[in-house]
Every structure is written in structure tokens, then in C-alpha cells.
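Progress report, Aim 2. The chain analyzed during this reporting quarter is listed below.
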Amino acid sequence: MNDFGFEAVRTVDVVVIGAGQAGLSAAFHLRRTGLEPDRDFVVLDHAPEPGGAWQFRWPSLTYGKVHGMHALPGMELTGADPARPSSEVIGAYFDTYERTFGLRVHRPVDVTAVRESEGGRLRVETSEGVYATRALINATGTWDRPFWPRYPGQETFRGRQLHTSGYPGPEEFAGQRVLVVGGGASGTQHLMEIAEVAAETTWVTRREPVWREGSFGEAEGRAAVALVEDRVRRGLPPQSVVSVTGLPLNDAIRTARARGILDRLPMFDRITPTGVAWDDGRAVDVDVILWATGFRAAIDHLTPLRLREPGGGIRVEGTHAVRDERVHLVGYGPSASTIGANRAGRAAVSDIRRLLRREAVAAPAG
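Predicted C-alpha cells for the chain:
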């Protein structure tokens, strides 16, 4: 509210929510087309520092262990120490990027809701006030919505439960019996690290792991993206691109498999006070359950716009929501990879520029 009791609303052409890979790519292309930050568009980020979700990664995830970090448009990431934590490397890179291109990211800013507003604009409600915008680029990713499965007896477990989002590195698990749940890249990385210090490790997954031999080229990448894209086109919640590519077999994986670290058990049926149990009578006692069970898209702030389909997802064509062409989702579904996020940012800006030009032509003179 201002001094007269009226709500102060800032008007811009475009609001970008999120300053990870997808959000910064979009901001770069907005500026490249002649739009000015803080005048024509604004970038809002809830994180305390530059780096997107990377700044929250565990210290043992060094830059050398990162799979396929693609450079942001207009600036390569060069000379990075592979032994340095990825959170530091990518955080510093994003910080330099924001300053080099003058993107003026607002942080920390929480976006609470996006609603329909007057004059065909969208109302973006945030912790720093309200914005009225003609178009929205949502680049909020998934890190803020860790997925915790529910199993019978979960509340009775007397040990520690945590998710990948809160994984501190292997040192805290020294001498403990640790159960890792999840068959993705994070689960296998956690397991291999923890096995070096834990008293015992157990690995459970819902499905048999799919190990991928050989190189993963452009054709394979396109096929994987197409599978994710098909779900989004049908209005289903997206799967990650990684979830359909399988796990790459490298020397570390082969060694871990030979040592029995990656001997997988099927998913348990219930959780007990001291561990987990199966209906066939098997049971394992553990001190820690680590849920490496992935994330969901952080899009609850878009709920007032009613963009979801009956299948639970937002149906997207290109990058815009089918139910509202003003709303673009980048880093969502098929564009969740770093290279996909770059391309989606560029595509969203191209569509939005066409929308703004169309509106300008349709606007009455005077």
C-alpha cells in the first residue's frame, strides 16, 4: 500500500519467475531483443544468492561429477576446477553472468500467486509487492518440491529420514546402516559415497535399474526428450529427461557393481520402527532412510489460473500453456535439461515478442 492506502502495482511487459538456467536464458534473450530490466521486464528469484538450485547441492557433488552442464547463452563456463563443489562453480558463474548482462535479478523474492487481472494482464503477487504483466515466463524448476513417497508405518520409524534436497554429504553417515531409496542418478551417487563410510548400505528401487552402455548421442537425446514431451502434450505431469535415458555405465559404476554396492532390492512394503519390511518376510534394520525419490514441478503459485489438465499436468505447446498463451513454462518437462532450458528461454521470448507486437497493433490509437 502507498501513503494514500492504495495498493501499489508495478507494470511491466514480462515477469520472469526464477533465475536458474532457464530463467537467466530467458532474461538474456529478453534483453537481447531490446527490452530493459526493471523497465520492460523483471526477474524474480526466491533463492538468497545466484546459482539457481545448484547453490543447494551437497559439497561432495564436485563440478567434475556434474553430467552435462551446458553453458548459458552468450558466455561460456571455462577453467572450472573439477574438484571444486559444483555449488561454488556454478554459483560464481551465474553471478558473473547476471552482472555481465545487467539482468538485475530481484532476490530473495517469493511469488505467492499469479491471477487474472484487468486489461488482459496477469497479476503477480510477491513478497516485494504486486506486478501487472502482459506475459509470464515461469522458470521455477523442481528443487523446492521434493517428492516424499508415503508408506505404511513411516511415522513409526525411530531413525532419521531425509531427502536428496537435504543431503549433507557422506560424512554424517559414518558407521551407520543406511537405506537409499531411488533408482536415479542422485540415488546411485549417494549410495556409492555413503558405502565408503557406512557400516552397511541397502538400495531399493521401484523398478529394475536400466544401465546404459555406450555413448549417449544427439539422436538418443532427441528420443528421450520426445518421450517427456509427449507426456506434457497430453497434460500429464512431466517426467525428467534423465528418468527415460537410463543410468550411464562408467568405471565408478562398474566398480560399485562388482563390489555389490549396487545390488538392488525391490521396494519394501512397509516401514517399521527399526527399518523396513517386505510381505514375503524379509526385513532390514537401518539407522537412516535417504529418499532419493526426485522432485515435482514447483508451480503451485499458478493454481489460480487453472492451467492444469485432468491428468494433473499443464499441457504445453512449444513453451506456452495451452490454456493461456501469455504463460510460458521453461525448464518444465522436455526443457528441464540445461541445454533444453537454454532453447526454451529463447523460444519463449520469441513467442512473447510476437504477442507484444500483436497487442501493440490491436491497441486503439491515442
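The chain is about 25% helix and 20% strand. Residues 294 and 349 are 29 Å apart (CA to CA). These observations will guide the mutagenesis work planned for the next reporting period.
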